[in-house]
Design brief:
mainly alpha
Length: 146
């Protein structure tokens, strides 16, 4: 995130993640319409809708404020950031368990908020959180197939 273009690229990735999240929420809503959703499931879906909205707002803010949010001392290549957010988007599309989806979305929201600060430390912490969540989801999936 050392140039305006890289900040805008992150904003684009966050927008894509919000799109994936929206598609996933709609898929969850349409799954079993023969019975009403439980209160817990309904609350989780509402929270995910709220997260989608926040992601879109933060992406838009990054677009608008890109020049002031350049972080030259991040110490991580933009490619790493792009790869990690792409993995998060893919996981959102494929996660089978709703609670796992909520955890990953929380990590992406943390990244979106951290990017808006323009400070390297919170961005690095948020990236580490997403990386751990993706790795945990991979490990969980691997243990189920083994």
């Amino acid at each position: 995130m050392s140039t305006v273009e890289e900040v805008e690229a992150l904003a684009g990735q966050l927008s894509l993640i919000a799109d994936e999240l929206h598609q996933r929420i709609m898929k969850e809503i349409q799954q079993d319409r023969s019975k009403p959703p439980s209160a817990t499931r309904q609350a989780a879906l509402r929270a995910l809708f709220d997260h989608e909205l926040v992601l879109r707002q933060r992406a838009n803010s990054l677009y608008a404020d890109g020049a002031s949010l350049v972080v030259r001392s991040l110490g991580q290549p933009q490619r790493h950031l792009a790869e990690l957010t792409a993995k998060a988007a893919e996981k959102i599309r494929k996660i089978a368990v709703l609670k796992d989806l909520t955890g990953l979305v929380a990590g992406v929201l943390a990244l979106a908020g951290a990017a808006a600060t323009g400070q390297p430390a919170p961005i690095i912490l948020a990236l580490e959180k997403i990386k751990r969540q993706v790795e945990a989801l991979d490990a969980h999936k691997a243990s189920k197939t083994a």
